[in-house]
Amino acid sequence: MFIRRSLFSCIALALVVSVEARACLPGTAAQPADATGEALAHFDRIKFGMFIHWGLYAIPAGEWKGKYYRGIGEWIMFRARIPVREYEQLASRFNPLKFNAEEWAQLAQDAGMRYMVITSKHHDGFAMFGSKASRYNIVDATPYGRDPMKELAAACAKRNIGFGFYYSQDQDWHEPHARGNDWDFPHERKPEIYLRGKVFPQVKELLTGYGPLSLIWFDTPGLLSEKQVTELRQLVKSLQPSCLINSRIGHNKGDYFQTGDNAIPIQVYSRMKWEVPATLNDTWGYKKNDQNWKDPADLIGKLADIVSKGGNYLLNVGPTAEGVIPEASQRILRTIGKWLAVNGESIYGASPSPFHFPDITWRCTVKPGRVYLHILNWPGRQLMLNGLESRVRRAYFLANRRPVTFRQKGSALALDLPAEPVDPYNTVVVLEIADETPRVAEAYRHDRLPARLDLYAWSARLRGEEIRYDRATLSATNFVKAETERNELWWYPYGSLDGEYEVEITYSCEDQAAGSPFRIAVQRSGQASREELRGRIEGTGGRFLSRGVEGAIRIRPGDQYISFGLPEDDRSAKVRLWKITLVRRAG
Ligand code: FHN
């Protein structure tokens, strides 16, 4: 038994905000006034984009020869080790007659998305555009015979939606000299052959055939050398200087930082501009049995969370092989769009929070003279905000302009709220302040994290197919055992933590279901090794309780993520994990 019982306290789920202040506004570092700098400034303003994963993998849709494959749908060729000659035959069946570029672009617009990024070539190597560089493309190899990217680029331009291409520059399972396919091509690779023969010519086609691109989105860098990546970057910039490049080009050659998939930094991240690519369910490419759709409340909360921390949100849809964006995705996106139509002022063009976030009650965005409080988890009749030193002149709900009564004493602000939220997803309160930029007391600034830091299930990446988030209790559950892609929660500090930490976990478990070993781990960047703490789940009589874990973990600025899971058995699968708390050791 490794668990320590001393910190055995009952948790009240009612959350009270406590913030204080003297501000220096975080934001993207000043950009040079060149084409890239201007494009980045624009990118920073638009905040919300549509990601589209569309390719041959939409035909098998998660199943190959009658067998279901776990994991993301567009990886089926790899997971099922499908020989190139067999996979290629999917092209002869790809005929997306229901594809309608106007409808897709209109959906993006209805959702309030201001840019679009679509897979021009994913890891399977199939070009979804007309390519002279490889006949393995939608125009030459399918009965469809048309280039849907031309129509999509035009439909986006018409609506002033930025347009960009995803391009898998390193992995290509169709090519012997690219990375990834060792079942057809076990020999040594010469990336230069693949690069010169396919990547450079196709990237050139993308940058010359589809009008101005907002960005090119590379992915999973691996084999390419720094010199090769530099050349790739130069090619892009020589053709379109204002086309942004994401950091997954590799070797730190991107214009902005890409977080991990579905990975949101735990606090404000202001070192450079960044973007979170995220799924609506558990896959990118269409998978017929994946109905694990995220709740719009969750997604609207995540949008506010990401923008409050300084990022953009790139939310994915996976159209079917017929060219239809799944109905559920459409419904969810239009719900987000309705919220944005009313509350967009607090998102587009807004700067991130000058405060750090003590919990998950609220998030915060800023414009000159205004602070927007996004109330994500309703605190009851009062919201306390400690730390704002700027005088508040006026407070009102963004949704209906009704005034909010408040009292301000020093840097403590108390807002009177109705019993129920004004908006079911995210109620925004506008604070008009006497300063252009909010002044925030030092202890509450975004870059001053408290010694006790809560990492909530709400803000974690849910990793694995079975794990679920439960809105009613704000907790994650169903930690069933899985060999690959374990059911775990992952939190991403992105450099904000450095020290030795004791850990508490706050969870509930029925007494009869107790017993599973749990593991809290820190994943070191680029290393297989993890630092771990282990304990055993004890019954809590079904109530949420906090318990300390024996030992401490060291977290360094370069570490990738912190995880929580029950990897060894299913006895306590129904544990509800509300949060883990990191308590920094002195010294
Ligand atoms: O392997 C890909 C995956 O299929 C998907 O395209 C995501 C989107 O960010 N990127 C890679 C994994 O990170």
Written description of the protein model:
The protein is an alpha+beta fold. The protein is built from 10 helices and 29 strands. It has helices spanning 35-46, 76-79, 84-87, 101-110, 138-141, 148-158, 191-209, 226-239, 296-309, 327-343, and strands spanning 3-10, 48-52, 63-64, 67-68, 115-121, 162-167, 215-218, 244-245, 257-258, 274-278, 311-317, 362-367, 370-375, 382-386, 392-397, 406-409, 412-416, 427-433, 452-456, 461-463, 468-470, 475-477, 488-491, 499-508, 517-523, 530-536, 545-555, 561-565, 576-584. An 8-stranded parallel β-sheet has the order 8-7-6-5-2-11-10-9, with helices on both faces. Strands 1-27-24-29-19 form a 5-stranded antiparallel β-sheet, with no helix packed on it. Strands 20-23-28-25-26 form a 5-stranded antiparallel β-sheet, with no helix packed on it. Strand 16 and strand 17 form a beta hairpin. Helix 4 (101-110) crosses helix 10. The two termini are 28 Å apart. Residues 1-31 have low confidence and may be disordered. The structure holds ligand FHN. Ligand FHN binds at residues 72, 74-75, 219-220, 261, 277, 284.
Helix/strand-derived category reads: alpha+beta
Ligand inventory reads: ligand FHN
Largest sheet strand order? 8-7-6-5-2-11-10-9
From the N-terminal CA to the C-terminal CA, the straight-line distance is 28 Å
Would you report the number of β strands?
Answer: 29
The shape is globular
Radius of gyration: 24 Å
